[in-house]
Amino acid sequence: MKTLLVATDFSANARHAAEYGYHLAKQIKADVVLCNAVIVPAEIPQSGLVVWPMDDLEMLLQDSTSQLAIEKLHLEAMAHSDMFKPGISVINESGVVTDIVDGFAANNPISMVIMGTHGGGMSSFLIGNHAKNMIEATTKPLLLISPETKLLPVKKIAFATDFANPDEDMESLFDLIPFAKVLGAEILLTHIHEEEQVSHEVKQAITHFMTEISNKANYPQIYYRSVQNSHIEEGLSWICEHGHVDMLVMVHRPHNFIYRLIKSSYSEEMAGRLDIPLLVLAAKK
Fold this sequence. Notes:
This protein is an alpha/beta fold. About 40% of the residues lie in helices and about 20% in strands. It has two domains: about 1-115, HUPs (Rossmann fold, 3-Layer(aba) Sandwich); about 155-280, HUPs (Rossmann fold, 3-Layer(aba) Sandwich).
């Protein structure tokens, strides 16, 4: 049985992400784990928050447990008798979100980690709150949900690649295909190139990539689309908006385009908004 871990801080955005995670769990027949990290300011003095005694930790955990129970009931109320009903369990610990999530995922069969963002387009997927830290730290597929994301079936998944690491991207794509099959979704290989003309070497890499996928993937619903744009984030936003994409997938590795997006500050330069889920896959070792 697949299991989706949903990280929550009990905010409205986190509740929306949990609702999306539960909706997705019903589609792929997975269980859900609601996870809350109880952050005690005394443990993180650089946070700038008011410090209170560690004796209050037990009270904080009790409050967390009570709130998790409320969130669980809220999700269970979304179930319908004619659909698969995911099982829901809860966990809470004191510490940093990334440590708690990765620690639990390392010892349990977690298929995917889901968390909400502050919204405001693609820029807010990659800056602010805990999203950037989770992208850097998690070893599991990470699904980031904007407050604007609608609870709709996933029928088209855009897999973004620059073909700089085609063999590694192919491995990640093979991992993605079973997920797409369960959803009955198309996979759109999306190439945003900054130059007006794609180089001969890249064209060869694309041809080889598509041939290998055709021969080995055994999944006919894979297509290719290239978009020329000098700003990668604008190109991705454009393809998501005009290509009727329901989920964007990117592989995170040092020095590739998602790494550059995370490290840069471009929120005010965004031409479009990304209100669909962003699935970040860790690079293959």
